[in-house]
Amino acid sequence: EAGVVQSPRYKIIEKKQPVAFWCNPISGHNTLYWYLQNLGQGPELLIRYENEEAVDDSQLPKDRFSAERLKGVDSTLKIQPAELGDSAVYLCASSLAGGYNEQFFGPGTRLTVL
Amino acid sequence: GQQLNQSPQSMFIQEGEDVSMNCTSSSIFNTWLWYKQDPGEGPVLLIALYKAGELTSNGRLTAQFGITRKDSFLNISASIPSDVGIYFCAGLSTSGTYKYIFGTGTRLKVLA
Question: With an 8 Å Cβ cutoff, are A110 and B102 in contact?
Answer without folding.
Answer: no
